[in-house]
Every structure is written in structure tokens, then in C-alpha cells.
Write a structure and sequence with these properties.
Helix content is 35%, strand content 16%. The chain is α/β, with parallel strands linked by helices. The protein folds into two domains: 122 residues, Aspartate Aminotransferase, domain 1, CATH 3.90.1150.10; 216 residues, 3-Layer(aba) Sandwich (Aspartate Aminotransferase, domain 2). The strands form four sheets. The chain has a seven-stranded mixed beta sheet, with helices on both faces. The chain is globular and about 60 Å long.
Length: 380
């Protein structure tokens, strides 16, 4: 079956955070949701459920955790006991729960920089000490400073937040790199919370997503892995994620406040996730090919413009643009004046960067690059 990702979708007046924030003259390529309609199998499953006309209190579908375990094995060859799975409403709630439950007062948490802001916010909002590890550009990939990791560890360091595939840098960490990180975590008696929500969006044909918890039993006992199909299959508004941890005490901690201050996953989130796991793979593979073509457009544009640069985006649908050569203090405003909304790098800890969402039609990507070109020409 063929899927047409060029079909225009008007998201104005749909209460979309992405499209309603700015005026209609602004092209929004910022917040991380895609502009594509969901896979037909998901739409069909939703239609069938909605046509029943009843939406009462709902429990997880029978065998749901088993389906997740099977999916993780099929996708990543990761052997997971269904009992290791904790169903959550979102990865964000998982980040905050892990931080608050795994740490005691006065302890510190290691967080890469730049990184998706909620890895930092989970620490600061829990009023714990945040220790940022600046990532380095090595062979055009944003990675951790492997030989310097120990210098960031303090006596009170308990936890590390990790993001793989990396947001916003787009890195897919290799087996060797993950092994190095696992050894570091074990040697320093740390726990690790690994945000792997973009695992299904690997674009680099030479790369493969490897859950760090899958490496060996030692690191598995120290890791909680947070995942969701919300990003890959574009239903973030439905809300469903899961945590995987072999460690019984960590698993118990991840269930703290579930169904109390932390809401239950939505009924339709279960429907979307099941449909994606059962029937969504052809659509996902077609999406990957489409995103690769969009990324090629961006790479070609950057090669022609020495004012900006970009690392090797191996995964996600997010381009991480280095604008440091422009030497601007008001880079976001300049983009908006040229009709383009991107995510400011300051949100991720790097003010000289901007993040561009290319999970949209090829037409929108081309128009976005035209507007970016106007920005660059205005600075010459």
C-alpha cells in the first residue's frame, strides 16, 4: 500500500499548539509533532472505537504489556518480560517520576547539554542539583565527552538522564558508545533514565537504535527506559507511553502516583498504540523514506550556505541548526520577522542554535528553506 505524505492538511483552527501560536503569515516548523495524518490503520481503529459511542472508564486492553514486549523484540531484538512494563500517560511524566522517586534530597543528576528541556526541568522542578555534561561534536555527530565523564560525577550524584536518539542533536548512539556509558554508570553506582521516544525514527541507513538496557543484566538493573509510539506515528495528543525496567524497586517507584496525581492513559491512546504495533510498520517505513528526502533538501541547502551548519542528523525529524556565525542575540525574532517559527536553541541549552521540524510536507520544507534564505541574505 502506498501512502501520500504530500496531501495537504490544514491544521489551522484545530486547537493545534503548533499552528495556532502564530499568525497565518508565519510558517511553524517548531514544536515536535508532524503535520501528516496518522496511518490509515490507526484512523480505522479509532473510527471503529468511536462508532461504538461509549467512552466509559477503561482499563488497559488484555495482553497490552505482552504486545509491547513483542514489539520491542521485533523492532530492537530486546527481550523484555511483560512484567517489566509500566504504562504511563507520557514520557514527560516518566521523566519527572523517575527524578523524584530515584533521588533523595541533596543528590545530583547528570544531564547532557543540549537536550530536550524536560530532562533538565525534571531535575530543577524537583529542586535537585543539575549537573550538565556539554556534548561535543565528533566526526559530525553530537556525542558525550567519553574520556571526561568522570569529572562531572560528584559524591552526591545518583542519577543520569540520557536521550537516545538524541534530541535535538539527532545522534543515534553506537553499541561501543552505549557500552562505554553503561560501564561509566555501573562504575559510579548510578541509575539511568533513558528517554528513547524517537527510537522508531532512525533515518541513517548505517545506524540502528539499541536500547541501553538491552546491553547486559547489570545495566538493565540500573535503567528505566521511557518509550512511546506517539512521535513515530504522530498521535502525541492521544497520550500513552511506557517505562521498562527489570529492577523491581525501580518499577515500583515508577508506579508512584499513577491513577492519582498522574492521570491514566487515554482510551484512544490505547487504540492508537495497539493499531500502530499491529499494523503500522508499512506506514512507518514509508514515513522514514519521506523524512529522508526532506532531510536531503535541508542538507543540500546548508552545503550552499557557509553561514550555518548542521551535524549528521541520524534520527528524528528535527534539524539542529548552528547559527553561531550570525552572532545574533535576537535570532528567534529575526526568524519570525521573516515568517518562520523554529524552536529556539536556548530551550535546549544552546542559544546559538535553532531546531527546525521537517516532519511536514516537502512543500513546507522548501518554503521554510526559502524563508531561511531570506534570513541569511539579510545578514550579509
Amino acid at each position: 500500500m502506498k501512502f501520500d505524505f504530500d496531501i495537504p492538511t490544514d491544521r489551522h483552527n484545530t486547537d493545534s499548539i503548533k499552528w495556532n501560536k502564530y499568525s497565518t503569515e508565519i510558517l511553524p516548523l517548531w514544536i515536535a509533532d508532524m503535520d501528516f495524518k496518522v496511518a490509515p490503520c490507526i484512523q480505522e481503529a479509532l473510527n471503529q472505537r468511536i462508532n461504538l459511542g461509549t467512552f466509559g472508564y477503561t482499563q488497559a486492553p488484555q495482553g497490552f504489556k505482552e504486545q509491547i514486549a513483542q514489539y520491542l523484540f521485533e523492532q530492537y531484538q530486546w527481550q523484555v518480560d511483560p512484567e517489566w512494563v509500566v504504562v504511563l500517560p507520557s514520557v514527560i511524566s516518566g521523566l519527572h517520576t523517575a527524578t523524584r522517586q530515584f533521588m533523595q534530597v541533596g543528590q545530583s543528576c547528570l544531564v547532557p547539554k543540549p537536550v530536550y528541556q524536560h530532562l533538565r526541568l525534571a531535575v530543577t522542578q524537583a529542586q535537585q542539583e543539575l549537573i550538565e555534561i556539554p556534548m561535543v561534536l565528533s566526526h559530525n555527530r553530537w556525542v558525550l565527552p567519553w574520556l571526561e565523564l568522570n569529572q562531572y560525577v560528584k559524591k552526591n550524584t545518583k542519577l543520569m538522564h540520557f536521550c537516545n536518539p538524541q534530541n535535538p542533536g539527532g545522534t543515534v548512539f553506537t553499541l561501543k558508545e552505549l557500552t562505554t556509558l553503561a560501564e561509566f554508570v555501573i562504575e559510579n553506582n548510578l541509575l539511568i533514565c533513558s528517554d528513547e521516544i524517537h527510537a522508531g525514527l532512525v533515518l541513517d541507513k548505517t545506524a540502528k537504535h539499541i536500547p541501553i538496557a538491552s546491553l547486559n543484566a547489570d545495566i538493565s538493573q540500573r535503567t528505566v527506559t521511557l518509550m512511546s509510539l506517539n512521535k513515530t506515528f504522530n498521535f502525541p495528543g492521544m497520550g500513552l507511553a511506557w517505562a521498562v525496567t527489570e529492577n523491581h524497586q525501580m518499577r515500583k517507584a515508577m508506579q508512584t502516583d499513577l491513577h492519582a496525581t498522574i492521570a491514566e492513559p487515554s482510551l484512544l491512546g490505547y487504540i492508537c498504540t495497539q493499531a500502530a504495533m499491529k499494523h503500522g510498520e508499512p506506514w512507518r517505513l514509508a514515513l522514514i523514506e519521506y523524512l529522508r528526502e526532506n532531510l536531503k533538501k535541508i542538507d543540500a541547502f546548508i552545503r550552499k550556505n557557509n553561514q550555518i551548519s548542521q551535524s549528521n542528523i541520524q534520527a528524528t525529524y528535527l534539524s539542529w541548526l548552528d547559527l553561531s556565525k550570525l552572532q545574533l542575540n535576537d535570532v528567534e525574532d529575526l526568524f519570525l520577522k521573516n515568517g518562520l517559527a523554529l524552536s529556539p536553541g536556548s530551550q535546549f541549552g544552546s542559544p546559538a542554535f535553532m531546531r527546525l521540524n521537517f516532519g511536514t510536507s516537502a512543500k513546507n520544507v522548501s518554503e521554510g528553506l526559502n524563508r531561511l534564505d531570506h534570513v541569511l541574505k539579510s545578514r550579509k
